[in-house]
Amino acid sequence: MLMNNWISKLSLNQRLSFPIMAFILAVFACFQFTSYRSYLNIERDNLLTRTQILATGVGANLTAAIQFNDFYAAEEILASFNADNLITMASLELPNHTVFAQYHNENNVYVAPTQKQETRIRDNGYYFSHELLYMIVPVTINSSEIGHIHLAVSLNKLHQIRVNHLQVSLFLLILISATGVYIINRLQLWVVTPITKLNDGIKRIINDKQYLPILEQKHSNDEFYELTRSFNNMVSTISQRDNELQAAMKHLSDEKSFAMNIIETVQHALLVVDQQGNITLANNTCHSVFGRPVAMMMYQPLTDILQPVDKDAFTLLFNQALKQNHQLDNLLIEGLNNKGEVRTYQIISRPLHQQYQILFAISDVTISHQAARQLQLAAKVFDNSQDSILVLDSKGVISMVNSTYLNITGFTEEQINGQHYSFLVDINEFNQVSPVLRRELSANNQWHGEINSHTANGEVLPLFVRTHRITDPYTQEVQTVVVASDQRSLHEMQRLEHMANHDPLTSLPNRVKLMQTLDSFLSHQVLTFESFAVLFIDLDGFKSVNDTYGHNIGDEVLKIIAKRLNDSVRKCDMVSRLAGDEFVILLSPTISEEGVNVTSERILSLLREPLHIPKIKNHIELGASIGCYYVNATDFQNSDDILRRADKAMYEAKMKGKGQVAHFNSLNNDLIL
């Protein structure tokens, strides 16, 4: 058991190395021991045989010496043993155990056998001691022993063989050990290292979640190489799947957190109702929707919480949702809250099949429902407005248009929506008002003025436009609302009014417009006590122009005169053509007579300048007479009296010699001062 525990603690490298080395050493030891024993036995047998043959031959030669008791001959014969340097001692004994002759090799050490060894020598005929081989070889004649040769043979050669064998064994041991180490190294490189790397890789995966590939063995294409490649592919796949799993788990966690946040922050009351209609789960929003603590609503019938006004109709739909899995989609009901107030609730239901319950999402839409009604009303107003309404986004693209604009232009909604507003205006004409429009929108978020659009058939459409810039408080998106009124009828009225109140030749106000303006000045004078002056102008020499050049040239002259008169007075003053070559100028307000005189002289000076008419070679020179009447606030007079007095002053100017200015009265501004 201890061995098993010890082995279980070893590494794979050690488990492979120890058995291999042990096996190699065991095989080597067994082989060497067997070969050593076999080789040693062979050498011993060879030595024994060779010595015995040699001793037998010598013994055959000793028979004569023994028979003749020739001691010297016997020693000479025994001396022949010196041919074998291993023979240490040779002794010829007679049957009576007396030594007859003896040979001793001085180069070798002789050790006499012990008694025990003597016994074994007599029994076996030989005995191998540690240093010597002891033998007894009989000397016979005709099968009769006449003596014995006792031999002592040196075992140095055997010892040398042992040493040589040991050296060879040691060399082989080193070679085999090196081979074993090389094999173990190869096993470690080819087997242990890949398995260790696989083990480390698996540990990293298990412990550290580190999906690192294993370095593949170079110049290898075996099963471990394929296993390493498969492991790396597995690691790559696991890493990819783990990343996907982590991403999915993170996404799921985020979605769960998001869902929980939604459930807690959603403005809908979320309630789970069982098959009996009782509430089993409610979120915190239920308190703000129904005005009741969530704990008090638990396990209460939903109908008791809603308190529907039409209880029978709601109970029917509610039972269908509970029993028949009928889904309620944006159902609107009216119910009473805990204060007895009628509220409008929007209900959505979905079955929870696994729990056998129903999820209700209920929101108080009283305000939004009222807003929706207001929005519907606004939509009706938008669509039925007598004015055209267009809505532009921040880029000037039309996003909405009402039917009034479509009716007056002949465009369809598909033709208008999505188009830039420049599609509807003359861009050159619009560029003239665009700077003012943009400046007013930036400063005041509104602008009004006239813009010419066009109909679908290209007809010019004059519009009085009121623009308003609106910014969404949530998205900060800027939109522009354009309300446009069709000015075609107004322009026609203005044209007719202009024709009725203006001279068709010079476009100056005519007598009708003059009288209206005089009446307006007189009404204004009652409030302000401001005086104004009336200049009655009659051209000198105009009749000769008509007589000389004709009425067409006379008309051209009148147009030039009208322009010069307009250029000579202020914008607040009015120049009108009374009739023929008579003009009336209203100077209002009038501060001093000196200012009036300066204006009168400027008029006379401009009218005296030669008139160049392209149709005639000679230039035309004219003059004028001016009659001035001051309308003071204390005079209390009418328009006819004013014109009559100004006309009288003009005739006085003509009587003075033409080209003169005559005053009917003086300016009285005492009340103003």
TrEMBL record:
GO molecular function, one term: catalytic activity
Signal sequence, renumbered to the chain: none
SMART domains linked to this entry: GGDEF (SM00267), PAS (SM00091)
Annotated source species: Photobacterium aquae
Domain of life assignment: Bacteria
InterPro entries to which the protein is assigned, alphabetical: Biofilm_reg_signaling, CHASE8, GGDEF_dom, HAMP_dom, Nucleotide_cyclase, PAS, PAS-like_dom_sf, PAS_4
Biological process per Gene Ontology, one example term: signal transduction
UniProt cofactor(s): Mg(2+)
Residue ranges annotated for the HAMP domain, each copy included: 189-243
Keywords: Membrane, Transmembrane, Transmembrane helix
Membrane-spanning ranges: 20-40, 166-184
GO cellular component, one term: membrane
All residue ranges annotated as the PAS domain in the record: 255-325, 374-444
Domain GGDEF: 530-666
Transmembrane in keyword set: yes
KW Membrane (keyword) present: yes
Pfam families: CHASE8 (PF17152), GGDEF (PF00990), PAS_4 (PF08448), PAS_9 (PF13426)
Record's protein name: Diguanylate cyclase
